[in-house]
Design a protein that fits this description.
By secondary structure, the chain is mainly alpha-helical. 83% of the residues lie in helices and 0% in strands. Helix 1 runs parallel beside helix 3 and helix 2 runs antiparallel to helix 3.
Length: 123
């Protein structure tokens, strides 16, 4: 019974979390994130039971759903950030390539200067 309540609360908290993608891609990625969150929560709670951290089903269920929610939100936030950054870079391709090129040249010059200071007779 309590698991159904936790499931309902979990669904209500994760429902507004969407991704800036086409609907089928969003559902697929959110389903994978949900499976990852379930697996991590399952094994974490199993280890807690094995280590006798708690013994009641209520605490195990609560821990499972809290861990599952935390993992889901964490992985969702990383995924959202990567997708948003990828879309931004793709929409500003030329500026991104120029910036990457400038950073590569600056890094190479810094490496050469550092190498000359530490090894003055080698390149």
């Amino acid at each position: 019974m309590m698991s159904a309540i936790w499931s309902f609360i979990y669904g209500k908290l994760t429902d507004p979390l969407d991704l800036p993608l086409v609907l089928w891609q969003q559902w697929l990625i959110l389903a994978v994130i949900g499976v990852i969150a379930y697996i991590i929560a399952y094994y974490a709670v199993r280890d807690m039971y094995n280590n006798s951290i708690f013994e009641s089903g209520f605490m195990g269920s609560l821990a499972h759903w809290l861990i599952r929610l935390a993992v889901f939100v964490f992985v969702w936030a990383i995924t959202y950030g990567v997708i948003a950054a990828g879309k931004f870079i793709y929409s500003h391709r030329v500026q991104s390539l120029v910036s990457a090129g400038i950073l590569a040249v600056v890094g190479l010059v810094a490496w050469i200067v550092h190498r000359k200071k530490t090894h003055p007779f080698r390149f």
